[in-house]
Amino acid sequence: MAKIKLLALDLDGTLFNQKKEISLENKAALKAARAKDVKVVLTTGRPIKAMEYLLKELDLISDDNYIITFNGGLVQKTNGDILDKSELSYQQVENIQAEMEKLALPVDILSDGIVYSISNQDHHSRYHLANPTLSFKKIAGLDHLPRDIIYNKVVIVYEAAFLDQQILKIPAYFYDRFEVFKSRDIILEIMPKGVHKAVGLDLLVKHLGIDASEVMAMGDEENDLTMLRWAGLGVAMANGTAAAKQAADAVTARTNEQSGVAEAIEKYILKEDKNGII
């Protein structure tokens, strides 16, 4: 196995525990990995504005550190310099809202750190509960959505049983136009077609001059599948979905509540011999 030069980390269900905190053991492991010149890249669906506190906490803000946000839709340095970005058009947002309205699913449209929330058939978004660090603006409909902004992605955040029931009713054509996947049991994400975590990572490693074989990616959910398959070493969490475990090369013995990230770093990065072979 190639020596790991970059560690791509999902947050919820992976690096975070249920309280959305990073354990001391995980922090120590990340510090040790960085001491071996391994780049730590947070790879998330969140916008960078919701990540600033975390980047500071992990001492990752510089012109030599990187972050992938919006599930691969934005690749940038942690100082804010953008390498690559993708976005939805207003017409695509219209299409998404029209379909979600039929399904009585509320819609949240993300533009950087601002979320524009639209209720559908008296069903209201729960995104503010899932990610309270963002700024939320309730709007009556798309007529009230600004046209001069970036539309990074659309999310639907609602009670899991109803959400899963309605997902089955999404028309087939919709999957041809967009990337559609769950990132948590209550969150459905809709991205521009062809944009996902593996795409963002591929752009980044080309910029850095390293190979996918030198990347270890860790995740637990549906939106992590592409990077788990793409990376030289994909590691799913013990608490991950069946699909994540199937896509990965390895599965941790410990969950996110038990610092499973630290376990994988110790096993695959810190215990290499001089030839880089585990």
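The record above closes out task 2.4. Task 2.5 opens with a second protein, given below.
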Amino acid sequence: MRQNPTLLIPALAPLYRLGEPVFYALLRATYGVIMVTHGLPKLLGQSHGSMADPMAASINLIQNVLHLPMPGLIGLLVALLEGVGGLLLILGLGTRLLAAMMGIQMLTIASILGPTWPWIDRGIEYPVLMACLSLYILFRGAGHYSLDHTLSREL
């Protein structure tokens, strides 16, 4: 059960109570938007940032760095997690499962970059932050403004 922390301005307690679920939904949706912007270019075969072919780059990473079997299939699953999973995260549907899967993806990315610990030019700070955000969403759940919440009330 949550305890009420000491508020900076106690008179604003009603505003904090009103804003918390709204801003948590915004946080969850923002994470989803970020994931969609990485997944859609892979699924649509479009360039993304400095990558002319992000799907080919993902497949190359899976095959030549991770040495996993079926790199094309795994690349497609990653793109679907980012693109479709990101959209579902925005809506708050299947939130805990998606957060767990995205957290595993972010920890994998961080561990691949980890030996050099670069903090600039595609450093690990972003996947580490996203992994922590995934864990928070996993344990917190979808929140009030989500399809998970709406559907669980209707059951």
